[in-house]
## 1
Amino acid sequence: MIAPTTTNTPQRLQRNLLRASGDQTSVAQVAPAESRPALSISNLTKSYGGQVVLDDLSVGLQQGEIVLLRGDNGAGKTTLINILTGNLEPDAGEIDIAVDQSTESFRFPRKWWSSLNPFQHFTPERLAKAGVARMWQDVRLLPSLDLSDNVAVASPEQIGENPLWAFLKPNAWRRQERSISQATQLVLADLGIAELSNKSPDELSLGQSKRVAIARAVQSGARILFLDEPLSGLDARGMHEVLSLLESLSSSGKITIVIIEHIFNISHIMKIATKVWTLREGKIFTERPEDVRRERSCDTDFQHIIDRLAGDAGAVVNLPLVNGATLTQVAPAHVQDLDIIFEVQDLVVHRGRRLVIGEIADDGIRGLSFKIARGQIAILHAPNGWGKTTLLEAIAGLLPVSSGKILVNNRPVDKMRPWQRSSAGLSLLRARDNFFATLTVKESLEIANNSDTESLSCFHKKRVSDLSGGERQRVLTNSVLGNRHLTIGLLDEPFSALDPKRVEELTETIMAKLDLAGILIAIPSTVTGS
Amino acid sequence: MNYALHLMIFMSIYGIVAASLNIVSGYCGLLTMAQASYFAVGCYTYALATTKSGMDFIPASLLGMVIAGLMSLAISVPAWRLRGDSFVLISLAVQQMLFSLFQNWTSPNSEPGTWSNLTNGTFGLTNIPKPSFFGMQLTDIESTAALAFGALIVCMLLSRVLLRSPWSRVLQSMRDDELVTRGMGKNVRLAKIQAIAISCAMAAFGGALYASYVNYVDPTIASLDESMAVLCMVLVGGTGNFRGPIVGAIVLLAIPELLRFCAMPDTIASNLRLLIYGLILILMMHFRPQGLAGSYRIS
């Protein structure tokens, strides 16, 4: 799936990289420096309230490697990445980072006197200066800066960042600013989005914003990149873009990449990974990619879920929608008579002036129409930027609809407020910003008007923010599908960040709801492998 | 004519203070309630420096700026860890502390301006000299207006340079997402100290201008009402660019003056002024939350 690096992207980025590091060798001469260590961790320990997450963990990383870090939900992947990027202090252990010619070492637990020195703290900025950068799972581009500033701000050692020099040396910083902005323009051009350089990051597709985030990390001079789920939520094109960027970065031999990825996308990462770290019971087991590839062949993918939902005698219908999206309607065998409970008629949604849902036809704008029956599951797979999230949010009443009708149980709901729609039986799980961090699990279930407060009772007293990614997703799906009035559940990427066991559980939860309701699931279009 | 010049001087002074608040509130996203107390630091320092040691305008106002810049650590160090509501409360506490300092640093037995009676309490300091440059005093209102307007222009230009520099880009990215900014290796603590110190020093410069024009300072200029008034200017005018606060200062100072021409008794007009202020704020928040000329919405 990964095409050889045909565009000029890799070369340019590599050139930027070399220029940044002051290396004069040409790209062709750079050989991967396999033998030099970039990062070594020894005896790292971290526990939360008595629960040991990382247990005496030791591992090393060579320059130019691409490592896949995997582990079940709650195994401590995020904890490890938080520690290695300076966002969390470990209880004990040693971390050594060797980048270019300099080496930074950190020893834990720290002696009491070192905590008195404000310049010696273990902080993200210190590790960033040492050459470590992180791409967050939810990308986190800076919304009020335009794209070129989003990349430019990361450049290290800017003269104009000191307000005194901003006054006194205007020519110096303007000159530097010009060269930074040229470099930024080149990077954006390499990513194929030069024309968007004055736009806000909201206008990018997810794949583009992930690449901008990676470019930003490179611009900051980072030599070790930690990427938290770089492929999640991406369609085939976005994945290809991100993977070829990663491959070209590592091929310079100067950049080391650690990737956390969840189950559906591991097979894509395996195409470029040179090493696999599996996190299990607080320890890291290093494996060769070949072994993992073999093991992967029997793995879950989305087609399996569809087959399971449909059963042997179920019906699967693929309905093509506008702009390359498909609606797969799965009806399990026992659903005989199609009792339509949810219908979208000729729906058109704009965001600002941009038409998102609907297509321009000869006689005006043609909207989107589809139906879901009781007991049916509809899976909407569409490329990034198609408007899946917009569609679901418009149905739930969070965004205004330009024209068209939404019927739940043959009752029009499009004039209703979001909370009225919820009582009418619509229930939405958003892909992000979907939980109240300070509420406990019990409170979240109750506030979601959940009829089944007994389930998940083992978590009730925990705060939602303290749960691991997979546990949280489970609580959220339960609270959304537990809506007392549930007629149609709308799930935006519910399977992201789940391990196979959790995927299984979620499938069970969904199937248990099908007696009463229909479900609409939105996923990016690669995941089915179709 | 004098009336128009008077109005112009006030608009210039408040324009400077509003522009200074914009650096903290608009670019760092930290809503501070303490701006009037740093304005007052500038006023008092100017008053004491000119009356007690006969300094000229420039050294006296520079002294005020330095003192205010140092005292700004009181809000910038807490801002390392706090933002949002907690930071508002800290700034409110600093505002109240400075206010009570101005009000209570007094003793009936000593001269105003001496160490034991530094601020002369609620009576305030009087007889502050008009601005003088190298021994030349600006006594007429025309030259004072020219000074104030010139000062506004200089402050605008300086803040324009600053707010278009890479420094302001760091401030904005810190406002958007502090953790990401730290992850890019930026020293956000230093940036907060710098931004708040520059802002407070600029407010103190406005204070020095005010003291030199009005010739009298008392603690009411450091009251919470003053802070709120400046904050209203920034909110109405808009934050996140350098012209918004000036627009706000002009609009909010012009409204009560317009009411003068409505032939209303003063008692009604002054109450009506507050009512109109409130109404404007509510309408603005509802229909134009980014302000008249702003580009960022304080949340």
## 2
Amino acid sequence: MATTARSGGNASGSTAQRPNGTQQNKNCQFKLVLLGESAVGKSSLVLRFVKGQFHEYQESTIGAAFLTQTICIEDTVVKFEIWDTAGQERYHSLAPMYYRGAQAAIVVYDIQNQDSFQRAKTWVKELHKQASPNIVIALAGNKADLSNIRVVEYEEAKQYAEENGLLFMETSAKTGMNVNDIFLAIAKKLPKNDGAHNQGAPAGRRLNDNENNRQTNNCCK
Amino acid sequence: MNELKAPSLQSLLESDRGSSDSLLAESLLDVDDLDDVEYSIPPSGELPTLESALSEFEADSDIGSELGVPAPAPTPTPSLAEEGGVRNGGAGGGGSIMRYAMMHGVSAQIASAADRVNAGFATACAVSTLIGIGTSHGHILNFDITQTLRWAHQDKHGQGAVSALSYNPDCTRLLAGYARGLVVMIDTQSGDVLRNLFDAITPNTGVLHLKWTSRPALALCSDSGGSVWSLSFTRKLGIRGCSSRCLFSGARGEVCTMEPLLIDSSHDLDQYCIIALATLSKYFIVTIRPRLKVIKYHALQGPADCLPVLAWQMVLIQAADTTRSFDPVLVVGRGNQLFFHQLFMANGRISLLYLRHVQMQTNLLSVHWLGPKCVACMDISEILHLIDVRSSKELECIDMANAGLVYGSAQFKGLATGGNVSPALALAGTHACYNSLMSRGTQLYILGARSLHMIAVRTWTERISYLVKNQRWQEACDLALDGYRATAERPRRKAQAKERIIMLFKEYLAASARAPDYCLGPIVKCLITIGELELLWTQLWERLQNKSLYLQHITEHIENDNIHRVSPTISQALVDHWLEISPTKLEEIILKLDWTCLDLNQVLKAAKRYKLYRAQIYLNTHALNDYSSPLTELIPLVAQEPSGLGNALLVYISSCLAGRSYPSGEIPNDLVQNVKHEVLRCLTSLHSNTSVPNELPYPYLRALLKFDTRETLNVISLAFQEKEFNGELGFSHRKRIINILLEIMTPENTTWAEIGCLLNFIAQQISQQCLKPDTQLLEKVLNHLAKEKITNETTRQHSERESAWHELLINNCLDEISTDEEQLRLAKRAHCYYVEEYLLEKLQRYDDIVECYLNNDQRHDTMFSYMERHVQQPERKIYEQIEKHFKRMLEINAKETTRLVDFHFSAKINKLLEVLQEDEQSLLTFLEHLHRRRFVLTATQSAQLLALLCKFKPEEVDEFVRQCDEYRVEEALSLVLAYKLNKSAIYLYEKQANYHNAFELSVELLATLHGEAAATFAQEISDLCVRATNVLPKADCEKFWFTLLQQILPRDDLKSSTKHMLHLSSQYVDLPKLVQLVMNTRNVSGNFGDIKDLLMSMLSQSRLETDTMEKTLQVKCQDLANAFARKRSEAKRGLLVSAMRCAICQQRLYNQSDILVLGGCGHAVHDKCATTYNETVQSRLNNGDISQTTQAEKDAYNGIHVACPHCSAEMRNNFYNNIIKLSEPKRTVSALCEAAFNIQQEQQNVNQMGVLKLKAPPRKFTCN
């Protein structure tokens, strides 16, 4: 008989045992930060992803907003803790606080706005320089529904992304185009099994838990 | 496990191991037919092991299965359920500390042995890695660790019950003692008897105790005679032997109990073999190896029916000086007392140190250590108490009455050996249970007649598990936290404790899945205390349906500063939660939280919406490092919002300018400069960001000034103390700010009070040399300061104005624009007396300084100290000023003024009085105060004062005339009479000794008075009468009294004092007259009651007088009788005549004539001769022949001092006047005299003087 006393996993990245004890889903928790020029649609993108909503006149974000969303990839439950930073220049100083320790970042630009693309490039540079080396960066060209009046060409952005090892998609928060896909792509790219992507402490604890489980199993025989 | 399977009882009985054949032979049972099910014999092979029984969480629980312990198959034996079997109770532990379990396997075997082979009930037990049980019919059952019966042994020698059992330390040998004295050694492996010792102890006694010592082949045995024997086992040439030696004889006090100290080899004491012994009156600590020696003994008192109890335990002792030692501790108990002693080696000697004393409620049966921290005591009502030794507190108690404890009374009473024990031991043995309670480690075994029970002390972990199992989460959490805190600074144990708490948390999660809110608080507290916040944010949070309780708990912890961070998810929920309930509370929480865990977008928007300005400021400054936007956003709101915002902003500005962050802490060093600059820039910006077309300049500063000018200026002046505002640049900053302030505060849109604040502020700045004086500014300031009148100016504002001006003057800031004279004029005009005074002082124009003080209401007190200070300096002209302002000074403080004048200018009082002459009121005040200061007034002054008093304060006249003596009485009297102040007049009359007038006036006055006043006054009149008695003749007095009484008696309102008055008067007047008066004046109802006392006192007085008379007579008679008796006794005294001849005629004395003995000298004369001699002397005196008369003769004549004519020896006076003639029988007298003479002759030479002294007074003898 399986142990019933032990249910639920540990903190981030630990395993959970379902009551039936056969199927074991992994639980992953990732910190994701959205960066980009103001009014490129960061908040809209997140809102679309988390709540499936879109507001034509989205209020501008102050400081940073926090949201969570959980998705399933194969047998892994991925929980995103999303920090949607404010794009205004005055909040720039806050950004390091949020991308420090983040496992993933989405840099957003507006395809109608060349400046926002340039700003995105600076963000990418800053991330490469300051953020954790394993960070997964995605570049999102937002407002793709308005591609008829685009300024930033798809190819240009694509090329830039490839050069810098970024995930790239053109998205539209309004239509929902590519929104889930870009998050899924990030989730897939994020490492889920080894402890490398996580901080040291939770990984160590998980190993212990595995040991315990094994012992318990032996005892039950 | 097959090899462990115990042989069945049958096989044991049939085997040749042990000696059970006789038992089999006598057994009436058909062993073959024994049916386990029918007789409820548990299947012995499947019993849980002892170890598992001791370590599993609960007997009969299914937790055992979780631990992988194979569960026992259900047994038909009804288990002694915990709830039904014992009543749990007790103090702190809540029943979680002690664990009770019944040893089912052992109990079943005991019962079956008793039932089937007639083994009798259990009487003794021994517990080591094996369990041994002895029975009343001499059977010994030996069980192994799994409670399996290994062998049984039956005594064949008819030695009665097994009274003591003991395993040796390595558990290879079992010693068993019997009630009739046999000691048997058995091999524990096989059950074979190795030694039978029939004569090891005193013959005809039973074994009470058997104990192995720390030496392998040495055991101790005590018998019911109270002796202790050492048993040394030998094996010489393969033959087992035993030598027994008596260590203590019971003749000198019977040893009731003994306890060897078993010690591991690492301790200093291991070279010794130590035992503790206790008799009914003492206890001893004794070494028996290497040699027998008593280390210590001590008296042990207690109730007669209580046995002493002993127990050893190795304890880690931490001394006061933090040294630690691991030493044996002995607990000695008797009655309800427990004493703890530490045994240790010091300088090569073994010493015993008293540690502590514990007093229990009831008397004790036994004491056993359960681990080094607790002691278990069974009391006489069979309740087991668990005592924590360090705190001396009872942790828990458990009622063991159901265990059916076996008592060893039979052994102590020696029933098996004919009862040959001392009565004391037999009485004490009533409660003996030494061999039925055994401890091992933290377990205590309790032997019942048919069962064996175990009590174990749970460890911390086990207690938590127990509480968890019973769903007592609150207690479990508290206990867990206690344990966690107790680990203090030991990291390894802390980690273990933490792990246990995490386990507890998981158990909680599993157990409370259906009611996730249940006992949430303690769990949250646990997690926060151990710092496992991740669990709190994820696992606990996610499973909750209703989050509000959780949020409440978290809020509590935030408010108590236990946590400063929460996860963003929780913080979002927290903000939403409190926004609904109380936004104010939310603000408090936000201020306490680390901003990095907050969703800034959410919080800032909420703060704006709900006007949480402080939170807004906090987040703007901390998170965004934006110090100016709070100002630009909030200052415009100041006017519409409640004052809280304005005040918060002022605090914020002040702290920013001082380099502190809001609401607490410091601004990081690298930011301070920027922040200060930015805040200042923002405050002094000419236009706001959202510049409205017709905006007035400096909107921010203006709004703040409008909100509260004074406080804003205070903030600025505080800021000016920072280093940024010092130095050349700083001063220019100041200048700029002040200019801005002046620009903002124009009379058109601000009140004068506010401008006053500003100008005072500027004046301060100028006088502190912080601002370049600038003529224009100064004039502006001075203009304000010197304003003659400002409408609605409060006292505070005025004094601020004055002090600002004063500051300016002190620092000579006004020199450039005006002169002191000018200033003086201005100050006078503006009523700034303080300034005026300062200027006068400066100009040395002292004449008017006092006037400044006088004009300034606040400084009246200082005026007097000023005058006091300078009174000695003539140039200050103090006196002149006093004279000038004397009247006002008297009005202000007459007392102080008078004191000053009296003290320093007493010579000039008359002058001052003159000054006051026309103002009678002031004069009166001055004179009055002079009088109160005991200043001696002249007669005129007194008269004047009296006159004024009569005029203005007639009620004080009376007091004055009584106190003062200086006035002339006649004048005063006429004055007083003129003002009809009768009381004073009466006093003055009396002072004049004019009692008649005084009395008449009094009586008149009394007639006008009524009620209480009349009564009091009547009393005064009577006092006056009493005083008059001493002066006036009696008749006058009587007249007074009668007049008074005539007045008083008829009046109804004076009835209360009538009696007293009558009583008083009766001392001074004739009583009969008084009675008559009373009878006559009692006009209406001649009440007998009123005069009753009077009559009574008359009667009693008369009786008293009669008594006195009688007594006097008696005394007189007594005196007379005494005098007579004295005379008579004198007369009766014998006389000694030393001469044979008359001293005058020189003839023989005894010649039939009367003789006169002169006494004293012993000479005698004839009566006739004496007469003649007398006449001769008299005639000689009469003839005036004075020259011939000797002095003695003169004396004789005068009859005062009479001398003997022969020797001139002095005689008693009045001799000639009081001659007593006695008629005595001649013969007798002569015989007497002759006898006396003879004696005298014989002794004359020897003691003439002595004889002379014995002479009697002169006496005359008459011969008839």
